[in-house]
Amino acid sequence: MRICTFNVNSIRSRLEIVQNLVNDYNIEVLCMQEIKVENKDFPLIDKDFECVIHGQKRLHGVATCSKFPIEESQKGFEGELNEPRFIYTLINGVHIINIYAPLGDNYGDRFEYKMYFYDKLFEWLRRFDLSKDKVLICGDFNISHTELDVWDEVIWEGEVTHLPEEKAILSKFLDIGFVDIIRKEYPNEKVFTFYDYRGAAVYKNEGLRLDYILVTKPLFEKFKNLEILTSIRRKRKPTPSDHVPVIAEFDV
Predict the structure, then answer these.
(1) 39-55 confidence digits (pLDDT tens)
(2) Cβ distance 210 to 144 under 8 Å?
């Protein structure tokens, strides 16, 4: 099963890119964030996809599309506070949680919302036996976990996404049994999934890693391959998202 997570930054603006991504890279499960569209206006990506869409007009929104049957699904959870940021699906025996976490701010109201979102997410995860269940959490976490996840540690220390409390959230996922697939594949290398549109950041490799695929150990045992598609972000036309698609393949 080939699973891709991609913050599309408007599915309607990025439709051609997403359709080519699905076809060129044989994407079987696609988890998108920041779709920025109401459910009724979500476009057709691929005729073989079944989609669970949780959107709203202009802001936020997530969608999970699958070429396999979706056995169970849930749109939204308590931590959202009326912003569409969460979809759960059960596909091929894998529990897939697709999230678009709040960006937060520097210890203001949006920081408190971000902490609340993650607190409620950890509560929601208690329904699983993480030592036995195949669970995958992916999406835009809006957290840059370590110095390897920012292009300049001096500049980013104490900034939003790299605050101590935010970094501690990612550490907690690892402590409770999740594996960070990107970091397993690149243990000592700076790898980024977000490049600001300003300043030609992608061409200078001045990025952040905000997007993750975290899996429990029973699913990690089925892991086969990882692809970080920076080349899609580097293209000038059609205008790309500011995020990079990430693909993980599992033998399930």
Answers:
(1) 999 999 999 999 999 99
(2) yes
- Using DSSP's 3-state secondary structure scheme, residue 161 falls into coil
CB within 8 A of 47, min separation 6: which ones?
none
Count of alpha carbons within 13 angstroms of residue 99, beta-carbon side:
26
In this structure, the chain runs to a length of 252
Residue 48 token pair: 């073989």
Q: What is the rounded CA–CA span in Å between residue 214 and residue 5?
A: 11
What does the alpha-carbon distance between residue 51 and residue 31 come to, in Å, rounded to a whole number?
Answer: 10
- pTM value is 0.97
Q: Summarize pLDDT for 116-159 with one digit per residue, the tens.
A: 999 999 999 999 999 999 999 999 999 999 999 999 999 999 99
Sheet strand arrangement including 70-75: 70-75, 86-91, 94-100, 135-140, 211-216, 178-180
